[in-house]
Amino acid sequence: MPADRAAHAECQAQLLRALLRGDGFPDGFDARKARAASAALLRKRARAAARRRASAGPVQRLLRGAASRRRGRARQ
Amino acid sequence: MSAPAMRRLTGVGLGWRPQLQTFAARAELGFAEVIAESVDPRRLPRGLDTAWRAGLTVIPHGVGLSLGGTERPHPRRLRRLADLAERLDAPLVSEHIAYVRADGLEAGHLLPVARTMQSLEILCENVAEAQAALPVALALEHVAALVEWPGDELDEATFVSELVARTGALLLLDLSNLYANAFNHGWDALEALRRFPLQQIAYVHVGGGVHRDGMYHDTHADPIVPGVLALVDELFAIADAPGVLLERDNNFPSEHELAEELGAIAAAAARGRARRDPIPGDAPTRVARRRRRTASALDHAG
């Protein structure tokens, strides 16, 4: 990656890491707005994680069911 | 530069979500949009496939290319977007002027890019790469952001205009994002709206939000606020704008409420159109009165 892109990448990564942490925002950012942005981002990530868990539920149940049937057959 | 010839999107559209598929099948939508990363081009969700087979135009809307990021758009992501466009016979695809990952971290959210010349150059390179890989036109959407980068060199309308002019991309104008940024950063929304490249609009987004703690949050989980409808009205008054699509991602309303919201969008567009083509003789008073109403709705929002 060229030097200017690398420096730019580091700036973007710093902001993202701060938003995920909820503090330590890079100099020059409005702290109140940055905290609000961080809270919104974390809420969105939590909702996405909950949706993933919910949608994975039936699959996991199927897999657990199949494993249980295999164990049952093995015992017979 | 004028927009390339393609099927024009008209009327009021809806972001297709599994929770809205029953409504979407019954409503007379002008068009729809689907989050590209949420569907497999080889196995469309049945409700979406049925609506598409019935003639609904569906636009793939990407959220994962990270065109504003410093990494090049991933070929696998581009291939998937291209495959979906082909599967849906879509006239275009859309993505965001944003980054969603950096240094191996996924944000799970659209983050704003710095509005600098360097950032613009990176975006132009990434957009050019995406355009080369896509079989249809690409429309770019500016995002709502609570934070602004220190040292921004350009305002949003100028930045977007420059990006669109340099790449030949179309504009996905999001009036809720414009409203949010204007409210949160103290811009004049009407003045900014007039400086966007309105002749390049592929379609328009609106979504709901909420005023909280002195800020406006573009939640896509609340009703549309009057200030956003005022921008719809104003847009159609100053430009021959294409269709407007409602995005709703959470806290899904009843079908009745959703229909009312779509109706309110259509009514705002119709009011604006009427201002653009006023009845001869009645025009000056009516135009002035409605312009004052638009400004008033924006002033008193919140």
General description of the model:
The complex is a heterodimer of chains A (76) and B (302). Chain A has 76 residues and is an all-alpha fold. Chain A has helices at 3-21, 31-75. In chain A, α1 (3-21) crosses α2. Chain A is elongated and about 65 Å long. Chain A starts with a helix and ends with a helix. Chain B is globular. In chain B, α4 crosses α5 (156-167) and α8 packs parallel to α9. Chain B is an alpha/beta fold. In chain B, β2 (32-35), α2 and β3 form a beta-alpha-beta unit. In chain B, 42% of the residues lie in helices and 19% in strands. The mean pLDDT of chain B is 93. The interface between A and B is medium-sized, with 30 and 29 residues.
Per the principal axes of the C-alpha atoms, what is the gross shape of chain A?
A: elongated
Count of helical stretches of chain B: 10
**Series of H and E elements of chain B:** EHEHEHEEEHEHEHHEEEHEHH
Strand content of chain B: 15-25%
Euclidean distance between termini CA atoms of chain A:
60 Å
Shape of chain B, please? globular
Beta-strand residue fraction of chain A? under 5%
Biggest sheet of chain A: strands, sense, closure?
Answer: none
Q: Rg of chain B from C-alpha positions?
A: 19 Å
Q: Please give the number of β-strands of chain B.
A: 12
Rg of chain A: 22 Å
List how many beta strands of chain A DSSP finds.
0
Helix content bin of chain B: 40-55%
**Unreliable sequence segments of chain B:** none
Helix and strand content put the structural class of chain A at mainly alpha
Numbering strands along the chain, what is their spatial order in the largest sheet of chain B? 3-2-1-12-9-8-7-4
Euclidean distance between termini CA atoms of chain B: 37 Å
Number of helices of chain A: 2
